[in-house]
Amino acid sequence: MTQAREKIVVQEAQLTELGIRAFEGLGLPHQDAVDVVRILVLADLFGLSTHGLSRIESYGERLQLSGINARPNIQVTSPAPGLRLVAGDNAVGPLVGMHALRAAMQAAEQCGVGIAFARQSNHFGPISPYGLIAAEAGFASIIGSNATTTIAPWGGTDARVGNSPIGFAVPNPGGNPFLLDMAMSVVARAKIRNALKAGAAIPDTWATDAFGRPTTDPKQALDGFLLPIGGHKGYGLALMVDLFAGLLSGAAYLTHVKSWVDAPDEPQNLGHFFLLIDAKRLGSTQWLTDRMNDFASILHDSPPADAERPVIQPGDIELSRLKAQRADGIAIEPEVLALLRKHAGELAA
């Protein structure tokens, strides 16, 4: 391990092993801990540190309060050849996510297209790690999850819609896959909190006050609601994600989703969906590689408006960070590392 500014750089294998021991220390069986840590370490490799192993804090708190089931009995059923239903038994979200991803892969291998609906889950991390795993196995994917409510219905004055993320991925056997992972709000609440700390105003497109009126005051925004991307169009997309992830899966939806902040000891019953397409059924490996590389080239070759910022396609930044951190190590906050060690040490004790 080496110091890198305020963070500590840890090699991927070492961090993965520590993460597994930490989740085992919180009560997870070994293979379940492996699944969870695979998603969270990929998030850290992508530079998505807020959704990486830092989640040991919130996941760990709820595991210790029995708000999350450390030893679930996850069930997968198949009501139709290309359809899988995953009952997560209130497990850690990335564990349910990995079960659903594998179930959707199996269905897509059989039918060319497969979809898994998961219920009885919790926060499952970012979507892009699942998209990458699917893409590396040759599957294009559309993946979504619902979430606790932070957005008001369009024109409303209270939080009834989740900041439900959706992601898309397309494999490229001979290059970088396409990876798009986005939530439904214009910005995360963390950006608004940072503006408040800095004493700065925010754009009036970020959030509303408690009365549903656009505001440039970060304090009023934190007391109000996030605004969806694309206005009413983003609102509609957020509802569509919740319909697939929550309503159709049999999970909670909209205001039925429990907040882990307000009720950390109660199941959230979040839902997810994993729609996979077996790209190998569409053409040869070379065919897909040529088309994907040409697709990326058309975008990359556009003359940039700012010479310091070349044109990219979604996923380029994350995959560049992944490559660099796999070579040089992952930069982790000292507090996160200390918490991982604490829980890993509890296992040894």
UniProtKB/TrEMBL annotation:
Record carries keyword DNA damage? no
Keywords assigned by UniProt, alphabetized: Oxidoreductase
* Origin: domain of life: Bacteria
Molecular function as annotated in GO? oxidoreductase activity
Q: Is the keyword Heme in the record?
A: no
- TM region(s), chain numbering: none
Similarity section = Belongs to the LDH2/MDH2 oxidoreductase family.
Query: Which PANTHER family does the entry mention?
Result: MALATE DEHYDROGENASE, OXIDOREDUCTASE-RELATED
> Can you name this protein?
Hydroxyacid dehydrogenase
